[in-house]
């Protein structure tokens, strides 16, 4: 009960949208395919679904080559970014569509539709017209529709990116819970790291049609394979340092990273890796004295004050940093920044 | 099986679907046309006609007058399309029906009606008359797509500061372009091959390729001259089709169809001007019709229903072999057969065309475009050429179809198929491919996807196409007059027969038969439109 | 290659089945075991009372199935095109204008009908009797007599009158290229003025405001003042028999044919060469020449019977007598000159 993709290459004309991809999804695993737009992730998903012919390579399910299996016999469910609900049918008929296609006895339809609507939190919506649904409701129906025929693999193509932020977060959590509970094997395509980490067990980072890195969510988050992956995973600043005895010394100060072996090391800093020194939110892991600089921009965010700070160092002119929401900082103010291990990734 | 093998299998399925339309075209169109043109070539002298400056003047006049009529028909048809698609006012449904009436009137009748207004005929009356026939093509084809085009893009443009006119020009018009170019291509072909009207209104002075081909074939039996002119006509038609195809390709996929959306509402502000324009167009269209109706009940001695009473008979001393009512029933039957046949073949062809367009690879797309154009050709080739082609070929088929009553619906279907394709194709193509993919991932086979997704979403268009085709078949005169047996004339053929005899009663009966034809048309359209609307609505949530 | 052939065959089969399936528009008459159907190919003007055809079927066992194929020219041309595989068994309606083409193309078989010596022989065109005359029709200039009475203008009577400025802008004729009365009228002027004189006459006609329409329908029903259309022009090229259809309430004709401007066309019938029922086809020709049928042609097709001693309908003697000295050109001369004359006419009068 597992998907394995080998050397898969998909061409659009002479352009290789997906190149030599190797990918495995184990039974019950949720894998997020993460990449910037244009990275080929949707193409890869469509090739797995059978919607896009492969130029080369294989897609296997449990060792069976699917090349000759047309889309409708693969038993893979698909949820599109914008739902693609059938406008000429109501909610229940949309969900029951797959049941009809799979010749599930009619008598069972109503009960299964009801169960699925419960599952996606839309109990009682059977007779609604799909044109009357909100974006979030439509995606829930799309999910229920895809789940109805009990697909052996669920493919989710940016299922939440059409929704507004708050809803997206909530739905991501719901989706994660639902997938875990139902033990569904799934492949989630997204460009949103948070969504990927909320929903998935493992993550594969795709860029330029190739898989750059694959692994458990936490591992990839903390140890991106190269600068490109790191940048995509939110790293805005790179700094080289030397590790010794569980601590890394850099031009920006010293930070405790117990898992890093001794020797030269390259760190990737997300904005919250640099915090206003001495502030209450700075956590206890801060060591060393940090680095001084001048604020050039300050923007309020929901949870913190986002700063751009000019350091005057030869290798980095400005860095991103965060300060507590309460800090009253303006461009021109001088600040002192310290490193926070929570926002640091070890690159390479 | 490799991925490529899957593709090939899909290709074979498509090819099988495509065989029926192609075979029909080959047997009932290409073969007869090639045979008769071929005879002209073996007779020699084709080159001389091609080298004659008069031939090219003829071609120039044909193309120019057809183009003028097309522009006119599009300009007049767009406000009406808007009215049909976007306006919710009492009477719009009536307009939807009435606008089709001109299309079914026999050319003889319209020609004579225009002669009443312009006693000496001439270019203006000719261009107007050809446009008159075809406003319905534009209004219904464009209106069909318009009613399904997402209004949000235009609203977005308005929000960005575009004036209503600007929003229409930069957003709505491009979205409608596939339908407009489709309709324009069809109208151009109709106008370029229009016969009766040109003969009556052009008099001895204005001749077109079509009338000249008729003359050379039917009256002079100058097959080589006719073959040469047919080649020129063919070239002009292909050129028009290529232009249309390029326009379509440039705008391909411009329209997004949304289902279950009703964008019609009461007009506001400047939109009333468009409505007024549409009403004016409809009024102009109705003028000759009203004058016909008046003619059908007036005699030199005052009002009389004698013409209508005469429909129960066969005309003065048996001008017709059947009664007016029997002719009407012949019309209905032939049109039904023709529509069934044309829908089968036209929809199959559309499905194949859409699949070819969506298929990867230049070859498939090229094939699609070629087939698309080939399907249009029957509109652009003279009915005389096809009819005489039948004479020299169809005796080779079992049952000698040349003299069979079946030939009438077959020939009518040949004329309707391109219309069906033109009406169904844009809508079918506008069905979001991802909807179909969603259905496929839910386990629907390609055939099932078609049945569950494309069919319900395009049902209104299919019904509209069927209705339109039916009406065209009802009014078809060129090919029918050639092929109909005297013991089974259709109404238009009977009308022409009545008009070709002296005597007041024959004349009145002809106009009464015209009125009957109009009534039958209106009834057919109302029925079909109603069916389409009901099915379209109930299809939501039905399954 | 083979597979393709199979596919094509399947497709053709499907088409045939489809075509068969929707044969709602049937209409093939049921015929008893002892009746045979003979197909009569004819022109669009064919009309005959059903009782007469039924009577013939009863007495001979032959049911006539009629196939109309356009006007006389179109009919002739179609018969020529299909002579290798004829459309029917017998043809009626090839007229003297096209007789030469029909004969030289060999579309008819020789057959001398026993009825032929009752009058039709007067119009015979070849020694082998491949074509038998059925009726004659004359194309004449018609005038609206009331118009001239009302205007106090003497009615025109001759070709020369028509070119007289007195009658300026009063006449409408048909294009000889597209309408057979137009062609007949042109031939009449050629017969009258000679092959070198007709052009000058037509120039005068044109200068005198002649209007030319494509078809008889527009000329007669729209432009002619004597018909129901109440058009503006009181002079029209039509048939000698037309006045019989325009009787006023007093039973008197409102229009009149100018008998000095008539051109005669004879319509023929013949057995089609290559037909499968030659014997029965001959019987149909006999029928067309018989008293029984001949008596119907005047009322039904507005032509005069070729047979002698056949009564014309009441009123015809006064309204539409058979012109006594119509012009006529020999068939072979018409055949040789027709195209040339038409194109000369077009450059002279058309455009």
Gist?
The complex is a heterotrimer of chains A (348), B (543) and C (351). Chain B has helices at 3-43, 46-51, 53-86, 92-98, 101-104, 107-117, 123-146, 152-159, 164-192, 196-202, 209-219, 223-250, 271-297, 306-310, 324-358, 362-380, 383-393, 407-430, 433-441, 446-475, 478-483, 491-499, 504-538; strands spanning 298-299, 302-303.
Structure description:
In chain A, the strands form four sheets. Chain A has a six-stranded mixed beta sheet with strand order 6-7-8-3-9-10, sandwiched between helices. Chain A has a five-stranded antiparallel beta sheet with strand order 13-12-11-14-20. A five-stranded antiparallel beta sheet of chain A has the order 15-19-16-17-18, with no helix packed on it. Chain A has helices spanning 41-49, 91-101, 106-119, 135-147, 165-182, 193-199, 217-222, 227-232; strands at 3-12, 15-25, 30-34, 56-61, 64-65, 76-79, 153-157, 186-190, 202-207, 210-216, 237-244, 247-250, 253-256, 263-269, 274-276, 291-300, 305-310, 318-323, 334-339, 344-347. Chain A is α+β, with helices and mostly antiparallel strands and 348 residues long. In chain A, 47% of the residues are buried. Chain A is globular and about 70 Å long. The two termini of chain A are 33 Å apart. With 543 residues, chain B is mostly helical. Chain B folds into two domains: 1-34 and 307-543, MetI-like fold, CATH 1.10.3720.10; 69-207 and 247-293, MetI-like fold, CATH 1.10.3720. Helices cover 77% and strands 1% of the residues of chain B. With 351 residues, chain C is α/β, with parallel strands linked by helices. Chain C has 13 helices and ten strands. In chain C, strands 1, 2, 3, 4, 5, 6, 7, 8, 9 and 10 form a ten-stranded mixed beta sheet that branches. Chain C is globular and about 65 Å long. The N and C termini of chain C lie far apart (54 Å). Chains B and C meet through helix 1, helix 6, helix 10, helix 11 and helix 15 of B and helix 1, strand 2, helix 3, strand 7 and helix 9 of C.
